[in-house]
User: Which sequence fits this backbone?
């Protein structure tokens, strides 16, 4: 038995959105037709996505969005979770008062990010301008709620038919922007760092720097053994993103020619997955991306298919179009720097829909829910407050059987200076998300 979906016009947006629900948010056999005659002969659930009512169907009167192409600056009427209970009505047949399919497409495609908008200092779309933030549901995976509502509705009206639900998953991700604070920086940068400590009278840091360089102290960013021990303890999957950029104002990683850095990358790739961390500079000079991918592939001896943008620089659709051109098949940038939560209102991997080209792409988007720097620098939270936010986000993802992805950096678990007390925040996330 399969679900029949009737729509008077089958567009690329229609195909994408119903695939999102019945291939990614849940699993059920389905077909889409634009022939009304198919409804009367179908044996099984029928979703009527049209302006006309038909007997023995679930009627979802549609808005225009999925039948259009191009962009409109008219903000659609979107559904939020508290409205779902009141969305169900009956006439001749059960009908839904809100268009959850258009709502899902608008949110997951990041339609609003194609429209003119203000950007932050790093040329990013800011969380505070998003529909989800303005309407108070940024920290809820709204589309997953839509899916649960839809699946329950189908099963209620068609006894015996079941939609296969997803199972909760967890993925730990770590960005290596700077493998070491003091080691392997080269002569010029090392001398420059010492000089800076001297002229600013930062003798504490100078003393620490020298002790690390002579081998009497561990580099504060060198937390890779710790990461591996936690992974072994809780038995979860990890994915590391490596910055392999040429030195620049916002790309201050360890030099790519460092033998120790290359050895570190090789050792990480032995027990975890590895992806590229496209540099800040690659956003204005796209040719850099290909070079950086080749560097990582040459070190790991693996094909590189995963990425996450440095500084979370994501401009739609250009960023994703460049990744696809460079044979990246999975991206993990979808999240906000300034606020924790669900940028695309969803917490499962899903294919990127290019609104500019009106096409379903091969690029899978893996949205993350929270980043360490967001909690500390932008939301200004202390460790206890950060744990509270993380706990609520994990609970939301578990509630809808989604995939929880956290974003951390090797320096933020050092438990030193600005990051004093944040190692336990990381362990709180792991202990709650991995179980």
Assistant:
């Amino acid at each position: 038995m399969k679900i029949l979906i009737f729509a008077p016009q089958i567009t690329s947006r229609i195909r994408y959105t119903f695939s999102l629900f019945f291939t990614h948010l849940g699993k059920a056999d389905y077909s889409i037709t634009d022939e009304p005659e198919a409804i009367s002969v179908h044996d099984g659930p029928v979703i009527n996505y049209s302006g006309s009512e038909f007997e023995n169907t679930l009627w979802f009167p549609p808005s225009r969005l999925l039948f259009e192409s191009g962009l409109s600056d008219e903000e659609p009427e979107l559904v939020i979770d508290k409205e779902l209970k009141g969305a169900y009505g009956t006439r001749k047949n059960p009908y839904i008062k809100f268009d959850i399919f258009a709502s899902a497409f608008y949110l997951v495609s990041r339609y609003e990010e194609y429209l003119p908008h203000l950007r932050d200092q790093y040329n990013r779309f800011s969380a505070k301008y998003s529909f989800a933030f303005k309407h108070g549901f940024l920290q809820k995976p709204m589309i997953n709620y839509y899916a649960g509502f839809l699946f329950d509705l189908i099963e209620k009206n068609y006894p015996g038919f079941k939609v296969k639900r997803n199972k909760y998953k967890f993925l730990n991700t770590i960005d290596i922007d700077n493998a070491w604070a003091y080691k392997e920086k080269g002569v010029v940068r090392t001398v420059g760092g010492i000089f800076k400590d001297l002229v600013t009278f930062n003798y504490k840091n100078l003393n620490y720097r020298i002790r690390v360089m002579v081998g009497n102290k561990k580099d504060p960013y060198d937390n890779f053994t710790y990461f591996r021990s936690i992974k072994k303890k809780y038995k979860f999957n990890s994915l590391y993103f490596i910055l392999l950029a040429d030195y620049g104002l916002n790309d201050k990683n360890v030099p790519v020619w460092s033998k120790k850095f290359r050895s570190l990358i090789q050792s990480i790739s032995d027990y975890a997955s590895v992806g590229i961390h496209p540099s800040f500079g690659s956003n204005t000079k796209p040719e850099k991306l290909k070079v950086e991918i080749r560097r990582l592939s040459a070190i790991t001896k693996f094909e590189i298919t995963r990425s996450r943008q440095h500084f979370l620089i994501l401009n739609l659709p250009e960023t994703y179009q460049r990744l696809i051109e460079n044979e990246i098949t999975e991206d993990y940038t979808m999240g906000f720097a300034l606020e924790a939560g669900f940028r695309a209102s969803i917490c499962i991997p899903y294919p990127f829909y290019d609104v500019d080209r009106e096409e379903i792409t091969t690029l899978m988007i893996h949205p993350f829910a929270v980043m360490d720097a967001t909690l500390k620098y932008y939301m200004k939270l202390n460790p206890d407050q950060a744990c509270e936010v993380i706990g609520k986000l994990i609970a939301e993802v578990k509630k809808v059987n989604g995939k929880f992805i956290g974003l951390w950096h090797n320096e933020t678990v050092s438990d030193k200076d600005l990051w004093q007390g944040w190692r336990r925040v990381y362990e709180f996330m792991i202990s709650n998300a991995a179980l």
About this structure: Residues 182-218 form one domain. The mean pLDDT is 93.
